[in-house]
Amino acid sequence: MLTERVTRVFDVDSVRQDFPTLHQEVYGKPLIYFDNGATSQKPQTVIDTINRYYTSENANIHRGVHYLSQKATDAYEEARRVIRDFINAPEEETVIFTKGTTDSINLLAFSIGETLQKGDEIIISEMEHHSNIVPWQMMCERKGCILKVIPINDRGELEMDAFRSLLSDRTRLVGITHISNTLGTINPIETIISEAHKKGAWVMIDGAQSIQHLKIDVQQLDCDFYVFSGHKVFGPTGVGIMYGKKEILDQLPPYQGGGDMIDKVSFEKTTYNVLPFKFEAGTPHISGGIALAEAFRYLDQFDHEALMAHENELITYAEEQLLMIDGLRIIGTAKHKTSVASFVVDGMHPFDIGTLLDKQGIAVRTGHHCTQPLMDRFNIPGTVRASFAFYNTREEIDNFITALKRSVNMLR
Ligand SMILES: *Cc1c(COP(=O)(O)O)cnc(C)c1O
């Protein structure tokens, strides 16, 4: 359990030793992994957990009478408690295992959609990831609801006055990203949550980019839903979480039907299981859930302030260095931001820069980063995005800047 933690001093060199993938060469150059916004690398202990599960614990859960099934069930339910502790959810049954952020939002868009009336309104923002746009659009089309969008300013910050004027008596849900995966903006979600609540609307926080950087306390935030993916927080792909307030989840209808989510099934009428199982149809990603909890155990050893201070130093230093390059423009200059440096260089296509960086061992992302409306807002086809994790170093940034200057000179 998380409560038995022993604090380990944050030291980036020793942290790097825990991540085997970081120690390799790409095209004969040491790998510099700056694509953490897309997915994170995994510490050895997470890899070992998956291996151990399939080596000695594998069985289906919740139904078996035999030893292994009980052991796997216990490990999976213990994982749920570890994750509950990490986000400080009040009850373990409010922590629903999903496939990831996208799956969590689709679940909510469907289930919440079933409770809405024609003309009800959903508010999202201009900086949302496609997975926090399209599910709501699909639901609005199906239910005759209205999707409203909070605009942003040139720095990539939400226009809060516009947000306030979009709120109405018909607003049922505000779905907002905590941190933009493209701009790095940290949104003022506390204000959004309290203002939306005054209008009686629920708030869903897309935590895909915040769970790995910020301390999350869902009770303190008072958000109604908080969703994230395991793979961006040093856990496996294919598993994620949808947290929701118990009194709301109890009143929402299930999303998918199947095994585990039922109480009694007959052809006349099926009744549904209690939380969390009502929202967990079918055999889940058992090893994934257990390994995700291990990722949180791993993260929880560190003093969070020290970890965040290191990350803040990385982004500040990277942006300082980037701005010294002629013709380079940073996209996303919010006052509150973290860990994402998105940029364009005059007259150059992001893809060409990314390709040249790759040949020098540096992994960045180029393109629209699943935020096409945001690219339209800035009137650009895409950006080059360097996104950092706590295992990145200043030295890697120096090498990245050297490689970037070389690439830019080649393209001039
Ligand atoms: C990555 C990401 C998603 C989608 O996550 P998946 O793991 O692909 O489901 C949604 N929102 C944000 C902000 C993201 O960064």
Low-confidence segments, given as residue ranges, are none
* Biggest pleated sheet: 7 strands, mixed
| Beta strand count | 17
The radius of gyration over CA amounts to: 22 Å
CATH second-level architecture of the largest domain: 3-Layer(aba) Sandwich
Provide the residue-averaged pLDDT. 97
C-alpha end-to-end distance: 55 Å
Gross geometry:
globular
Strand order of the largest sheet: 4-10-9-8-7-5-6
Report the structural category. alpha/beta
**Helical residue percent band:** 25-40%
CATH top level assignment of the largest domain: Alpha Beta
CATH topology of the largest domain: Aspartate Aminotransferase, domain 2
CATH superfamily of the largest domain: Type I PLP-dependent aspartate aminotransferase-like (Major domain)
Tell me the number of structural domains: 2
> What are the bound molecules?
pyridoxal-5'-phosphate
**Which percent range describes the beta-strand content?**
15-25%
Number of helices: 14
Task: Describe the protein's architecture and organization.
The chain has helices at residues 12-17, 44-57, 67-87, 101-113, 134-143, 160-166, 189-198, 218-221, 246-251, 286-299, 304-322, 350-358, 372-378, 394-411, and strands at 25-26, 29-30, 32-33, 95-98, 121-125, 146-150, 171-177, 202-206, 225-229, 240-244, 262-264, 271-272, 328-330, 340-345, 362-363, 365-367, 383-387. It folds into two domains: 12-43 and 303-411, Aspartate Aminotransferase, domain 1 (Alpha-Beta Complex), CATH 3.90.1150.10; 47-299, Type I PLP-dependent aspartate aminotransferase-like (Major domain) (Aspartate Aminotransferase, domain 2). Helix content is 38%, strand content 16%. The longest helix is centred in the N-terminal third of the chain and has 21 residues, at 67-87. It has a seven-stranded mixed beta sheet, sandwiched between helices. The protein starts with 11 loop residues before the first helix and ends with a helix. 45% of the residues are buried. With 412 residues, the chain is α/β, with parallel strands linked by helices. Strand 11 (262-264) and strand 12 form a beta hairpin. Helix 12 (350-358) packs across helix 14. Pyridoxal-5'-phosphate is lined by residues 100-102, 129, 131-132, 177, 181, 206, 208-209, 229.
